[in-house]
Amino acid sequence: MTVEMETLAVRLPEGMVQVARWTPSDGPARGEIVLLHQGLGSITQWGSFPEALGAATACRVTAYDRLGYGRSDFPDDERGDFLEREAWERLPALLDALGVEQPILYGHSDGGTIALLYASERPAALAGLVSEAAHVFSEVAETGGIEALRAEFETGDLARKLARHHPRHLDRMFHRWADFWQAPGRDDWTMLERLAAIECPVLIVQGDADEHGSLRQVDEIVERVHGPAERRILPGCGHSPHREQPQAVLAAVAPFVAAILQGNRAPHT
C-alpha cells in the first residue's frame, strides 16, 4: 500500500500548530490514527514510522508538533499542568479543527500520558489507544535522569541533535520540559485514579529495558482501565520502541487496529 504525505498549519486559540498527515492513496482510509510525540519530540522525530503505520493499517495517520515544539508557535501562557492542558484543551481543539472523529490515539512517553488523560476525560470519543512507554505515575527512574539531560544539553551534543527538530524554540522548549519534571512535588505526580474512566481498547507497548520507566507503569494501566487492555513487552528495548524495534511494534499495532475497525474488543491480557 502506498501512502501520500501532506503538511498543513492549523490555527488554534493559542497559536499555529504544525501538522503532517499520511493518507493511503490506494483507496479510502479505514480509520484515523493520531500520533502524540514524546516530551522532547516533534513530527520529524517520528521518522519513517508514520508512513509505515499508515501502510500497515490502511489508516490515515496524523502527527503534530505540540505548541512550543518543532515548528509550532510557543504559547504565551504556560502553566505547570501542561499534560492535562494538552489532553483536555489543546488536543480536543486540534481534533475539532481537523474534523477528526473517533480516532485511535497513539502516544509515546509524555504523548502516551496525554492520550490516556484525554481518554479518561472523554471516554466515548476514541476508537482505541496505543500507549508506548507512557508514565502514569512519577518514579525515580523517570525523574532521576533529568539533571543528566540538562548537563548534556548545556555542554554535550543534545542541543545540536535537537536543533534540527526544534528550529524555533529550542532553549525554551527544553527548559520548560525539564523544569516541569523537576518542579517541587513532582515526585508525587500520578494519574492512577483517572485510569478507571478509560473505556476504549488500549494496547500498552513498552521495552523491558526502558531507561525512563519500569514495567509497573504497564501493570497499573492494564489493571486499572475499565475497557479491554493488552500489553506487548519488547525484550531488550529501551524508551522508544517505534524507533528501536519498529517491525515488532507494527506487528503488535496492526492487528490491534484491525480488531478495533472490525468491532472486536480483546480481553484484558
From TrEMBL:
GO molecular function, one term: peptidase activity
Keyword GTP-binding: no
One GO term (biological process): proteolysis
Keywords (A to Z) from UniProt: Hydrolase
Organism superkingdom: Bacteria
Residue stretches making up the AB hydrolase-1 domain: 33-252
Stated family: Belongs to the peptidase S33 family.
Record-given protein name: Alpha/beta hydrolase
Annotated organism of origin: Kaistia nematophila
